[in-house]
Amino acid sequence: MAKPRKHKTEDQKADNNSEAVVKHQKLCLAIDLQKRRIYGYTELEVAVPDNGIVGLHADNLMIECVTVDGEPARFEIFPHYQQMDSDDRWCSVSSANSAADAAGSVYVSCLERELVPNLLIMCSNEAAKPVPEQLEQTVQENGTQTSSESKQNVKLIHIDYWVEKIETGIHIEKDVMHTNNQIRRARCWFPCMDDSLQRCCFDLEFTVANNLVAASTGTLMYQVLTNDDPPRKTYIYKMNVPVAAQWVSLAVAPFEIFPDRHNNLITHICLSHNLPKLRNTVGFLYSAYSHYEHYLSTKFPFGSYTQVFIDPEMAVSSLSLGASMNIFTSQILFDEKIIDQTIDTRIKLAYGLARQWFGVYITAEAPNDEWLLDGLAWFLTDSFIKQFMGNNEA
Prior knowledge:
Blueprint: H1 10-16, E1 21-32, E2 37-47, E3 53-56, E4 61-68, E5 71-72, E6 75-77, H2 96-114, E7 119-122, H3 133-142, H4 147-150, E8 154-163, E9 170-173, E10 176-179, E11 199-209, E12 213-216, E13 219-225, E14 232-244, E15 250-253, E16 255-259, E17 266-271, H5 275-281, H6 285-296, E18 305-310, E19 319-322, E20 325-329, H7 342-357, H8 370-393
Parallel strand pairs: 1-11, 17-18, 18-20
Antiparallel strand pairs: 1-2, 2-8, 3-7, 4-5, 4-8, 6-7, 9-10, 10-15, 11-14, 12-15, 13-14, 16-17, 19-20
Helix pairs in contact: 6-7, 6-8, 7-8
Organism: Ambrosia artemisiifolia (Common ragweed)
InterPro entries: Aminopeptidase_N-like_N_sf (IPR042097), Peptidase_M4/M1_CTD_sf (IPR027268), TAF2 (IPR037813)
Subcellular location: Nucleus
């Protein structure tokens, strides 16, 4: 078991991951809601930097072992919460304004520390094997791989782990579990490069009790029963569009699945007691889906789209974004007797769909630019609502 790492300077930490790039990530987890336990492994194909060290993010995770290309590897982990600030900034506090400034400074420092990888994996620093000149020329002509890519030192990192404490990022309430990764919390349930600029494709496998449904990012390829006694069910998803780790979402519960009547790529999911309201609420969504594709002259960026609705007492926020999947609170669902809520609900669902283009597929280079994507999503939503209401009036 790795011991907490001693404090290092910020420059040293930043250098550890300056050139590492995740090419692909696989995540295989077993989820036991009764015991509030999540365990499994992840595999990352990583282009290793020259110093041979790959830095990942992992908070509240128990790392059991790490291998690189099948061989045991040394690793060190240091919790972010152990990097405490000095008390110097509090010495000048003499009023409410100065206290607010000091608290703001501490908060910003905490956010900056979270950017620093805290799981360091020592990979061998051997250069990639040279590619024969004739093969390299053939690869280039076929357009499948450039010469610079072929010379990268790509390693397969395998990490066995389990979640030590379910505190944030994952939320469990009775027989419902869901994730919320928006503020760099993907690291709280799987090791990753939790950076919005690091994007890759994902293979996802989730094993749950036989009576539960695991809804996640990507396209559901198939589901199989395990040989356990009693048998459990494994859901296999594939995300073929590169996305940041923060957009990998998961919801597990005894859900009811309601396929969209107009498009088999759209799926609506909720708990059984909300199913009548769900059927009444989501019938318009295909109109928004079609309008966005026509307005933007481009197809939906992901292979499928899933809406998951959970009870408000279980939700952390009214909308949790994920690639190809959004998690909403069921408060916005309504039955046929309620007409006042119709427009407000349709705006919220249409906005969540618009964010798939502007926010998930297209991301901001820096947090300061996020306002632009939010504005574009609202502009797209507004264009649909005006057309939708105009057509209804006609």
